[in-house]
Specification:
With 250 residues, the protein is an alpha+beta fold. Helices cover 59% and strands 10% of the residues. A 5-stranded antiparallel β-sheet has the order 2-1-3-4-5, covered by helices on one side. A hairpin with a 4-residue loop joins strand 4 and strand 5. Helix 2 packs antiparallel against helix 3. Keywords: Membrane, Transmembrane, Transmembrane helix.
Length: 250
């Protein structure tokens, strides 16, 4: 409740021009967090699983109401923001452009990964895509101006980093998550074609879905029988497949 009061006071007291931009920044970051977080299966849901999204939407709703009240107050009293506030709002536009580029740069590699599932190339494909994105930074810096420059530069930088990390860091990240979920029990990583290779653990060259197979699957051989989970691109972790049975590890 105290946090909601602080947020409401902040968005009510600052000029509408600045408050609107601050609201957009918070909304973009909050929506990116929600979109990049996978849906937790009912069997794994905990008490705190709903706290994050609910708190984010409560904060955004409070900020929206406070910002609307401030706008109505300015409209009724017929006063506008000062020149100092307008200058601050324009300066914040560059920050807003960077935030927009950051959020889009996080999501575009995942959209590309969905389209390239099952593609060959492995590390070479990732380096070509990352290199092309990195090279575009030079003409973007030279030719673009205004808000388009920080937006595009941030987008390309985040996109390049995500592609490189998808090639170099994802295989180890997948193996670690598989070890954590197995808790010492025998397990295997596989696709519809069989055991996965190192390249199939990379972001852009993960196994494609085939029929009932949802791409990369982890099978843990527990005393109760095989338990299965799929790799989530958004959450960067395995998500339990409660109602599917792919049989024991080969």
């Amino acid at each position: 409740m105290i946090v909601l009061i602080v947020v409401a006071s902040l968005f009510f007291l600052i000029p509408t021009a600045v408050g609107t931009r601050l609201w957009l920044a918070c909304a973009m970051l909050a929506m990116t967090f929600v979109v990049m977080t996978p849906v937790t299966p009912l069997s794994e849901e905990g008490v705190l699983d709903f706290v994050g999204p609910i708190l984010l939407f409560a904060l955004l709703g409070t900020a929206t109401l406070a910002l609307g009240a401030r706008w109505i107050l300015e409209l009724v009293l017929s006063f506008s923001a000062s020149e100092y506030a307008d200058r601050d709002a324009w300066s914040f536009d560059y920050v807003l452009a960077c935030i927009a580029g950051f959020c889009l740069g996080l999501g575009l590699p995942l959209a590309l990964a969905v389209m390239t599932r099952g593609a060959p190339g492995g590390l070479a494909l990732h380096m070509v895509v990352a290199g092309a994105a990195a090279l575009l930074i030079i003409p973007a810096w030279r030719t673009l101006s205004g808000l388009a420059r920080p937006f595009t530069l941030t987008l390309l930088a985040v996109f390049t980093f995500r592609i490189i990390s998808g090639a170099l860091m994802w295989p180890d990240m997948i193996d670690r998550d598989a070890l954590d979920r197995s808790a010492g029990a025998p397990f295997c990583l596989r696709s519809a074609e069989g055991p996965v290779t190192m390249a199939e653990k990379m972001l852009l060259t993960m196994p494609a879905s085939a029929g009932a197979w949802p791409g990369l699957v982890l099978t843990v051989m527990t005393p109760r029988g095989p338990e299965h989970a799929r790799w989530s691109l958004r959450g960067k972790r395995f998500v339990t497949l409660s109602f599917r049975d792919f049989g024991p590890c080969p």
